[in-house]
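Researcher: Quick sanity check before group meeting.
Model: Go ahead. Protein one:
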Amino acid sequence: MTIRYFAIACALGIVHAAFSAYWAAGGRWMLDTVGAFATEWVDSEPATARTALLVLALVKLAAAILPALAYMNRPRLAAQNRTWLPSLILGISWPGSVLLILWGGASFVGAVIGLVVSDENLDPGRSAGSSPDGVKYGHLFFDGIFLAWGAALLTALILSRKAPYQPR
């Protein structure tokens, strides 16, 4: 059961990392949903932006994959008296999961409130295309993934303390 939550967290993190890698490779789809600053940065300083996005993608990928690998390899490494690395990775994952939940949750709720109380809803006579809701929808999507990733990781970490990994 625990490994399923690690797998869900891993998959969600990989999705998040994939978007950063896609943008680092020069892709533009959904980049504007991050915010105007992102497209301006990529346009004005493409080399710096792409390098930063690539580093970000690699950090996200490591944060997505390493907790599951640490959990699955802990029994094998314990047999070799080498438990410090999985313990370190899982130890860092605890505050990481809470940070993902807080960051993702706050931004997600902010986007929901922003969409509910948008100018378009307050002024029905306003034209449909004049509201920059794309960024809010981007926050719903990307920060929703952050929130779900953090929740799945935290659940996996809690369950991992109750039951050690048993390979099949």
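Researcher: Fine. The other one?
Model: Protein two, sequence then structure:
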Amino acid sequence: MKRPIRPDEHRLWSMVAATVHPLPGRETAPVPKAESGPITPPRAAADPLPPPKWDGAAFMVGELAGRRLPLRGRPTEDKGIEPRRKHRIAKERDPIGGRIDLHGMTQDRARAALEAFLRRSHDDGARAVLVITGKGVQGDGILRRRTPEWLAAPGLADVVAGISEAHRRHGGEGALYVALKRKARG
């Protein structure tokens, strides 16, 4: 059952309704008049919420409350490829050890394929690979947005050295260079 409308709510609605003009050929519904008087603020809840507690720790804007990623797990701004190395990869002076195209895959399938590809490339001794995500519709594809997060995940920290946007001839905004760490001797 709906609660009855309070007089101050009714008065406020009638002020809003008075500013609306009907479409041609339609009539406005009559709005009953409410008694005038001061508008009273709504009652406070019986149990107000306690004020939030802040421990003084640093946080990132947009970070989910209660979820703190380690520095290594944060998105790629911290893990870019060194500029000289990126230039060598773009000019193909450092060979691109492999390419994977994630077009048309679901997020789950793309993530699994990417992780398997990176581990296989690392085991084969590749030092850099190209990951093609595509731009998506209007340049905001989900794979394009999520791939840097997947690459920065702690599970791939032993493989991925850094990532950067690819040169235009390798896919530009729709592709990433992924620098791989050297394989451990032994």
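Researcher: One line on it for the slide.
Model: The chain has four helices and four strands.
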